[in-house]
Write a structure and sequence with these properties.
mainly alpha; 2 domains; 2 helices; extended
């Protein structure tokens, strides 16, 4: 039998509770996954597999200080990986 879910948190919680496995972005696991076995996904050359992520919004929103702070956090997180 197969269960397919389309929400990261649902998938993560199911895996945490022993119901199957999950392939998740590492950012979703920080601080909460010390009790589960994690295997980084690598390509044939041993390099970590990544994916492009987009941040979309209206130009006036990017002028707001809180949005600028969020963008900086996102940039810091992506630099860590």
């Amino acid at each position: 039998q197969t269960i397919i879910v389309d929400q990261i948190e649902t998938c993560k919680q199911m895996a945490f509770h022993g119901i199957g496995y999950a392939i998740l972005p590492s950012v979703t696991l920080h601080g909460s996954a010390s009790h589960v076995h994690q295997i980084p996904l690598l390509d044939a050359k041993g390099k970590a597999i990544g994916r492009d992520t987009w941040l979309l919004g209206y130009e006036p929103a990017f002028q707001l200080k809180q949005v600028q702070a969020f963008v900086e956090v996102v940039k810091e997180c992506t630099a860590m990986e």
